[in-house]
Amino acid sequence: MADPRQRQLKIKTGVVRRIFKEEKSYKSESKQHEEKVQTMKEDGSDEYLIKKQNQLLQESTMMIGDCHHRLEAACESLSQLLETEKEIEDTEEYKAACEILKEVGIEF
């Protein structure tokens, strides 16, 4: 992989993959916190503990938004790179980049 364009594709693909995974993780975490808050309310737990669990839920929810914005920017950057590097579309790096965009929900 001596071509710097392929290296750049590999890096940007990794960034998109990592942020996408991070966003999914925060969504899962947020759902768990939400369920725990609901259970705590139903069980009549201490208000202080419920409040702390709600704070954790809010932090997770806030991180989802942050990840989403970073993911959009990373996908846009990767898409632009794919547009300009059509001549290497038969390489594994190009195919992997298209695949991760498809996984994220962006048709390329």
TrEMBL record:
GO annotation, cellular component aspect: cytosol; microtubule
Keywords (A to Z) from UniProt: Chaperone, Cytoplasm, Cytoskeleton, Microtubule
Domain of life: Eukaryota
GO biological process, one term: post-chaperonin tubulin folding pathway
InterPro entries: TBCA, TBCA_sf
A GO term for molecular function: beta-tubulin binding
Subcellular localization, as worded in the UniProt entry: Cytoplasm, Cytoskeleton
Pfam family, any one: TBCA
Record-linked PANTHER family: TUBULIN-SPECIFIC CHAPERONE A (PTHR21500)
Subunit text: Supercomplex made of cofactors A to E. Cofactors A and D function by capturing and stabilizing tubulin in a quasi-native conformation. Cofactor E binds to the cofactor D-tubulin complex; interaction with cofactor C then causes the release of tubulin polypeptides that are committed to the native state.
Protein family membership: Belongs to the TBCA family.
Role this protein plays: Tubulin-folding protein; involved in the early step of the tubulin folding pathway.
Name of this protein: Tubulin-specific chaperone A
Originating organism: Eptatretus burgeri (Inshore hagfish)
